[in-house]
Design a protein that fits this description.
Layout lengths: L10 H13 L5 E12 L9 E17 L4 E8 L5 E6 H10 L3 E2 L5 E2 L8 H14 L9 E8 L9 H14 L7 H18 L6 H9 L5 E5 L4 E5 L7 E7 L6 H24 L10 H16 L7 H26 L6 H14 L7 H9 L4 E4 L8 E6 L3 H10 L3 E5 L6 E2 L2
Parallel strand pairs: 3-7
Antiparallel strand pairs: 1-2, 1-14, 2-7, 2-8, 3-4, 5-6, 8-9, 10-12, 10-13, 11-12
Length: 424
């Protein structure tokens, strides 16, 4: 398989042209958003940890126009492959949202609704529904035609879905929206809420945050204990190149099981936060021991069914705490230009992901890229992607990429990009 390549024509222009061809209407607005790749920390955002995320040069774009029949029609045009079309009514979206509302049983314990299973139309339509209910769109909105064009390969761990989410949200808001920092933070939150309510794959909210709030000039450091976003010097430069490497294959049942595991861990954190009355376990003093003591008490009163075991929770909490410390060290090394210390931290994180947190879907590929010359290889998002991000000395980057592509792997060169923006 050759290196990933994209059409020369910008995604926003392709989205607008495809929209006119499919719907017969000129789009009222278009917007685009970048690919994102995680350096470290993507599994600790829910805990209140820190995520180091980059935005890439590849982009997704959305073109929109209004409808009056209460339907959200979605037309997806990937850079490679056949277009997909799907639609859903606003009433169906309202019903799906209602089904996701938690309830309580006779003992006052929360009843967890089934995980959402929505596909393309539910995910994109869910953004429309959530924006209406969060007052980012008028309640008189009566449907939309939405056309998405993307240069970002699916399954490469580069946030293709998240880029489309953000592009759709900005296009729906219109080119005249004043996208200051608070509004960008709010739009990111809305995108994450919509995906977690309607889509089969849970959102990695750091992707939405980085796509909207990154300057594109460095690594975006997102601290979910206080919601702050800062920037550090980029890891990619004259000495280091980065690549996303993946095995071209369909989404597997193994990944579906891993997604169920991720949802269970997020529910565990949510339940613990609720019980301790905190928005973030990271802000809870002595959280590691206190949460385990709380879980033991829950087991004693309500039993273990539907709840994690003590041993599993112990490993999860250890991972959250240790990974947060690793990201803090990583950010310090970036800011002080101690490049040689970065990659051992990434390798430690990858080992911890596989051996402690139990998400090892990309472990073999991470080992392969290091054998082939990468100074570090780390999962792009273990559990939702089998891809890895490989960091390679710039002098050997061309041969590294060519050799892996010749072996049949999907290889995507990663270059710094720009934040999401309205196009017209």
């Amino acid at each position: 398989m050759p290196l990933w390549s994209t059409p020369a024509e910008p995604t926003a222009k392709r989205a607008a042209q495809a929209h006119t061809e499919v719907t017969g209407s000129t789009p009222t607005h278009t917007a685009s958003a970048p690919a994102t790749w995680s350096l470290i920390g993507e599994h600790i955002d829910h805990f209140g940890g820190i995520v180091a995320m980059c935005v890439g040069k590849l982009r997704a774009a959305a073109a929109v126009s209004p409808r009056t029949d209460g339907v959200v029609a979605v037309h997806f045009h990937p850079a490679q492959g056949e277009p997909a079309h799907d639609s859903i009514s606003l009433q169906a979206l309202a019903d799906l949202a209602t089904a996701q509302q938690p309830s309580t049983d006779a003992e006052g314990q929360p009843v967890i609704p089934p995980a959402p299973e929505g596909g393309l139309a539910a995910r994109v339509g869910g953004i429309v529904h959530t924006m209406i209910n969060r007052q980012l769109l008028s309640r008189e909105t009566a449907g939309a035609d939405i056309t998405i064009a993307s240069d970002i390969p699916e399954g490469a761990g580069l946030g293709a879905d998240a880029a489309a989410d953000v592009a759709v949200a900005l296009a729906l808001m219109g080119a005249d929206a004043d996208l200051d920092a608070p509004l960008r933070a709010r739009v990111a939150d809305v995108c994450t809420q919509a995906v977690n309510t309607f889509a089969a794959r849970p959102a990695l909210r750091a992707r939405h945050s980085a796509a909207l709030r990154s300057t594109g000039e460095g690594v975006c450091i997102i601290d979910y204990a206080d919601g702050s976003v800062t920037h550090a010097p980029h890891v990619v430069g004259r000495e280091i190149a980065a690549f996303a490497v993946a095995v071209p294959e369909d989404f597997s049942t193994q990944e579906e099981a891993a997604i169920a595991d991720i949802r269970q861990r997020q529910r565990f954190i949510d339940d613990a936060c609720h019980s301790f009355g905190t928005d973030s376990l990271r802000l809870l003093p002595d959280a590691q021991q206190r949460v385990l003591d709380w879980l033991k008490a829950v087991h004693k009163v309500y039993g273990e069914e539907g709840r994690p075991s003590i041993s599993a929770a112990t490993e999860w909490m250890a991972f959250y705490v240790e990974e947060t410390q690793r990201v803090e060290r990583f950010a310090r090394c970036l800011r002080s230009h101690r490049g040689a210390e970065l990659f051992p931290i990434l390798l430690q994180s990858q080992s911890s992901l596989a051996n402690i947190y139990g998400l090892d879907s990309a472990e073999k590929l991470a080992e392969l890229v290091t054998v082939r010359g990468a100074v570090a290889g780390r999962s792009a998002h273990a559990g939702t992607s089998n891809a890895v991000i490989a960091y390679v000395p710039a002098k050997s980057a061309h041969n590294f990429a060519a050799d892996l592509a010749e072996d049949g792997l999907l290889v995507v060169e990663l270059q710094p990009g720009e934040a999401a923006r309205g196009e017209s």
